[in-house]
Amino acid sequence: MYTRQQASEIRRNFWTRFGQYMRPIPGAEGEFINWLNYKTGVKHLYFRMDADRNEAAVSVEITHPDPEERKEFYKKLIALKTIFNETTGEDWSWQESAADDHGREISRISKTLTGVNIFKTEDWPAIISFLKPRIQALDQFWDQVKDHF
After folding, report:
1. Long-range CB contacts (within 8 A, 24+) of 89-97
2. Backbone dihedral angles phi then psi of residue 106, each to the nearest 5 degrees
3. Across residues 52-74, what is the average pLDDT?
4. How far apart are CA 94 and CA 81, in angstroms?
5. Is the pLDDT reported for residue 119 higher than 80?
6. Who contacts 95 (Cβ-Cβ below 8 Å, separation ≥6)?
7. Side-chain half-sphere exposure of 72, counting CA atoms within 13 A
8. How far is CA 76 from each of CA 16, 45, 67, 83, 84, rounded to the nearest angstrom?
């Protein structure tokens, strides 16, 4: 078991390594991208990556506090689902109503890899191999559809 400080340092080391690995990779438009803190340019619409003791995940999260506005964002994404599926090349989980880590209601589109542990450095290549193509696919998707938002 790790202390809180040790766990924090392991997480920081992983995300630093992932960021260094992704740094030279340009975005869909050929520009520099901060992959760890991807900016969609739309308030309340985020691309997130996470890894913990059991899994790694990539997601699109709609966090608008107004439920009606959140539903409208989600409906726009549903309308673009064909493009999303073509760009990502796989089926993702679509949830109109989910809870974030703080218990707030959000909408989420996600893909999860189970059976990996961020605290095992031997799992890091598998986690990186999972995250990299999916965040790049989200960038390609967003490049095609961002004008709809």
Report:
1. 89/137, 96/71
2. -140, 175
3. 97
4. 10
5. yes
6. 107, 108, 109, 110
7. 9
8. 33, 12, 14, 12, 11
Give the three-state DSSP class for 64: coil
Whether the predicted pLDDT of 32 surpasses 90: yes
Of the chain, the end-to-end C-alpha distance in Å amounts to 44
Confidence of residue 1 (pLDDT cuts 50, 70, 90): confident
Calculate the alpha carbon distances from 32 to 25, 93, 113 in Å.
8, 29, 27
What 3-state class would DSSP assign to 47? strand
Give kind and range of the element (H or E) at residue 49: strand 45-51
State the SS3 of 94-110. Answer: EEEEEECCCCCEEEEEE
Residue 126 Cα distances to 30, 96, 115, 116, 117, angstroms:
26, 29, 10, 8, 10
Give residue 2's pLDDT. 86
Q: Retrieve residue 136's tokens.
A: 């790049």
Which helix (H) or strand (E) segment holds residue 61: the answer is strand 55-62
pTM of the model: 0.94
Query: Which pair of structure tokens corresponds to residue 66?
Result: 């107004």
